[in-house]
Amino acid sequence: MSNRRVVVSGIGVVSPIGSDLKSFWENLVDGKSGIRQITQFDASTFDCHIAGEVPDFNPSLYFKNSKDVRRADRFAQLAMAAAKLALEDTGLDLEKVDRTRFGVLVGSGIGGLKSLEDQHTVLMNKGASRVSPFMVPMMIVNMASGLISMEYGLEGSQFLDRHRLRNRCKLDRRSLAHDPLRGRGYLSRGWGGSRNLRPWNSRVLLDAGDEYP
């Protein structure tokens, strides 16, 4: 077995118990729960009225262009936020990094399900001509890594490894245990749920991921 090394140089967290590393860790250690009443939709007709939502999340804080916020599904907004926090935690100067070898991987359980549901409602109620042309780029699961790459001008490998998502709760453990970067590299991690990692020819890899809180 070859001796492969990777450095986890930064961590970013956007979660129901904290949207920064310090508050997340403190609440985790104190045993605080992030489960609360559902606010993102009317859950009165469902048996379950609680979920682990991310409270007071403002995606505009994490995008350079406000238009990109409107054109991104919530899952991609969460991934962007976690990625930005992870990059900031590294203290990495992007001007001194070879961005052609800076990759981005995002693991997500399903992608932009809300965008798909919203546009299906538009289709049924208003007709096909009113469906947003942004529906597909908002719902596809690999759009999160694409947005992060474009936001920071990263030109290395960026993708979602779909077959890993059969058991998304194990993505992170398997990524570090089995798939370190080829050779030596640095890894920044940001997450709001599950995340994955596979070896490619990237010197630096931003590994972010999310569920859908």
Describe this structure in words.
The chain has seven helices and seven strands, in the order βαββααβαααβαββ. With 213 residues, the protein is an alpha/beta fold. The chain has one domain: Peroxisomal Thiolase, Chain A, domain 1 (3-Layer(aba) Sandwich), CATH 3.40.47. A five-stranded parallel β-sheet has the order 1-6-7-4-5. It is globular. Residues 173-185 and 191-201 have low confidence and may be disordered.
Short description:
By secondary structure, this protein is an alpha/beta fold.
Give the CATH superfamily: Thiolase/Chalcone synthase
Which range best describes the helical content: under 10%, 10-25%, 25-40%, 40-55%, 55-70% or over 70%?
Answer: 25-40%
Largest sheet: 5 strands, parallel
Number of strands: 7
Radius of gyration: 18 Å
* Distance between the ends: 39 Å
Which residues form runs of ≥5 with pLDDT under 50? 173-185, 191-201
At the first level of CATH, the class is Alpha Beta
Helix-strand category? alpha/beta
CATH topology: Peroxisomal Thiolase, Chain A, domain 1
Order of helices and strands: EHEEHHEHHHEHEE
The side-by-side strand order for the widest beta sheet comes to 1-6-7-4-5
Strand content: 15-25%
Any guess at the CATH architecture?
Answer: 3-Layer(aba) Sandwich
Number of domains: 1
Helix segment tally: 7
